[in-house]
Design goal:
Layout lengths: L4 E2 L19 H17 L2 E3 L6 E7 L5 E5 L2 H5 L11 H6 L6 E6 L8 E2 L9 E3 L2 E5 L9 H12 L8 E4 L2 E6 L2 H17 L10 E4 L1 E4 L2 E4 L2 E4 L1 H8 L7 H13 L7 H12 L10 H15 L4 E2 L7 E7 L3 E9 L19 H7 L32 E10 L2 H4 L3 H15 L1 H4 L4 E5 L3 H6 L6 H11 L3 E5 L6 H7 L6 H4 L2 H4 L5 H11 L3 H11 L7 E3 L5 E3 L5
Parallel strand pairs: 1-6, 3-7, 16-19, 19-20
Antiparallel strand pairs: 2-8, 3-4, 5-10, 5-11, 7-8, 9-10, 12-13, 13-14, 14-15, 16-17, 17-18, 21-22
């Protein structure tokens, strides 16, 4: 690309990095020799006598071929970072609402269309069994290469960016409302690429598509789906055996957290094992349940509707003792042949999966309160209109901070609305919307004459929005309620009064023994302790009850 060069600026105290080549398999060595000869013929690399020298490795692409990578970690360590802003995937998807025709352009060796500054080419030197070479064009693996490439693409399409073109590195998406517009847009986009020397893979080019894969998502004129390959990868992920493996799993699932209702509850359980200091890694039955339930939630993730900014938004919130969660939705017409059935915004996970991760203590003999269970549907009542056609746009959940756990239940309900409006401010600001909660505390809060300093800050945050509140009864909001509530995540329910007193009525003891068989978590803990094995922080009393104790004191 003319006028654009990639420069490599080093920190003052840098050290020249050179490293012995990695050993390669025979197929890899054969492929390396072929690719080096091709790069030399194209003038993308040249022989080098630079003191720098990074090793070569391969990464397998989706089509099974090998992509050459240089391990530039030694060079990147001393490179001054370019903090050019990269686009957010969710913000790009918002631009697609209402579009019916798509064209994805997959550039061929896009990085290689940008030259490396002459004085910096020796720093890109790499070593292999076939010699010492350096790049004349920008290779993969340099820490600032994405920033340089994104800046170049933004310059090419600056005047039409997010009008009918989205660019994320070498992924370009042209989107249009009509076929005529689409053809006109392509006549504008393609010559720009040709002018700057960028070439697309013709084999991957599809014009005027109604569905397209973009940024690891399936996009259509109305819907947003998770990438099938990523769903498969998550579903087949083996049980982690180290903190590093768990970090990798959570990193992949968090990318799709807006598809997963109540993601914070899974995250809470799994990260608790990462924060352990003694022992540093301990995989509990509860972690196993959370891991399997999260994989199941991913495979059952709902289809998200692309937002329509001509329709009002609905924010449904709920708060529990350990987390807040929210659903952003809009009401769309739902004809008989619509892909959107008359169901709640997100179907709950199957009963077996739900019960594994969300155990409930059934009512004891001295209580009248029913157990919290998953409802397969939202029951309509006079406080809120029918939910048919209410389609989810995104999900949000957040684990409460230790100080926030101590807030009153009413304050946590307000806090859920505060966090949701902050998170979706780009959707909600400047337009009226509706907030649904399972009580009227939010409405009372907005008209409360006297506020604490903390509440005053919340009122200030909410005052910039224009919304109305609608109460939704707890039994109506049962799916939302269950997803944000989990008794064992709150320390208070763990210190069950019936367990911590000295004298316990025999009927209570018998009731707890019975309920152990129905609770997935305590069933495992109870059976493990009865077999003579140990479970950290738990013990079995002479009365056959499970006791929890705090190691810290």
């Amino acid at each position: 690309m003319r006028g654009v060069e990639h420069s490599i600026q080093l920190v003052p105290d840098y050290r020249v990095h050179h490293q012995a080549p990695y050993r390669l398999s025979i197929p890899e060595a054969t492929e390396l020799k072929r690719q080096l000869e091709e790069l030399l013929q194209l003038g993308f690399i040249k022989p080098s006598n630079s003191p720098w020298g990074s090793p070569v490795l391969f990464a397998r692409k989706a089509d099974g071929t090998l992509r050459l990578f240089i391990d530039y970690r030694g060079l990147n360590r001393y490179t001054v970072k370019n903090n050019y802003p990269m686009p957010r995937a969710d913000e790009l998807f918002d631009r697609l609402a209402g579009s019916r025709f798509f064209k994805k352009i997959d550039l061929r060796s896009g990085y290689h269309q940008i030259r490396v500054a002459t004085e910096d080419q020796p720093k890109t030197a790499f070593r292999s069994r076939f010699g010492h070479n350096e790049f004349t064009v920008m290779p993969f693996g340099l820490t600032n290469a994405p920033a340089t490439f994104q800046a170049a693409m933004n310059d090419i399409f600056r005047d039409i960016l997010e009008e009918y073109v989205l660019v994320y590195l070498d992924d370009i998406l042209v989107y249009s409302r009509t076929l005529e517009d689409h053809l006109r847009h392509l006549r504008d986009v393609l010559p720009r690429l040709r002018k700057h020397g960028f070439y697309a893979r013709l084999s991957k080019c599809r014009f005027a598509q109604r569905k397209v894969d973009f940024l690891r998502h399936h996009v259509s004129d109305e819907d947003l789906h998770m990438d099938d390959a990523k769903i498969t990868a998550i579903a087949e992920w083996p049980v982690p055996t180290s903190a590093k493996q768990l970090h990798s799993f959570l990193g992949l699932t968090s990318y799709y957290s807006n598809f997963i209702e109540g993601y914070a509850r899974y995250f809470y359980v799994l990260t608790s094992t990462l924060l352990r200091k003694s022992p540093p890694w301990f995989w509990t039955p509860l972690c196993e349940d959370a891991f399997r339930a999260l994989k199941k939630a991913v495979t059952c993730a709902p289809v998200l509707r692309l937002p329509d900014f001509d329709r009002p938004f609905i924010v449904t919130t709920d708060a529990s003792d350990f987390a807040v969660r929210a659903v952003l939705s809009q009401v769309f017409p739902s004809p008989p042949d619509s892909p959107y059935p008359h169901v709640p915004p997100s179907p709950p996970p199957p009963a077996d999966t739900a019960s594994r991760l969300t155990p409930t203590l059934p009512p004891l003999p001295f209580t009248d309160s029913p157990p919290v269970t998953y409802s397969p549907s939202i029951v309509e009542d006079e406080t809120v209109e029918a939910r048919a056609g209410d389609c989810p746009i995104a999900f949000y959940s957040r684990q409460l901070l230790p100080a926030e756990i101590n807030y009153t239940a009413d304050e946590r309900e307000v806090l859920a609305v505060v966090y949701a409006t902050r998170h979706w401010r780009h959707y909600l600001h400047g337009a009226p919307f509706t907030v649904r909660t399972d009580n009227s505390v939010v409405h009372a809060f907005l008209t409360k004459p006297k506020l604490s300093p903390r509440q005053a800050r919340w009122w200030r945050d909410l005052s910039e929005f224009s919304f109305t509140t609608q109460p939704i009864k707890g039994e109506t909001n049962r799916v939302a309620d269950a997803l944000s509530r989990r008794p064992d995540h709150n320390q208070e329910p763990i210190h069950l009064a019936a367990i911590s007193i000295t004298t316990i009525d025999q009927s209570v003891i018998d009731a707890y023994r019975t309920q152990y068989r129905h609770c997935p978590d305590y069933h495992v803990i109870h059976a493990t302790l009865r077999s003579g094995k140990t479970v950290p922080s738990y013990s079995l009393g002479e009365n056959d009850l499970v006791y929890w104790y705090d190691k810290s004191g």
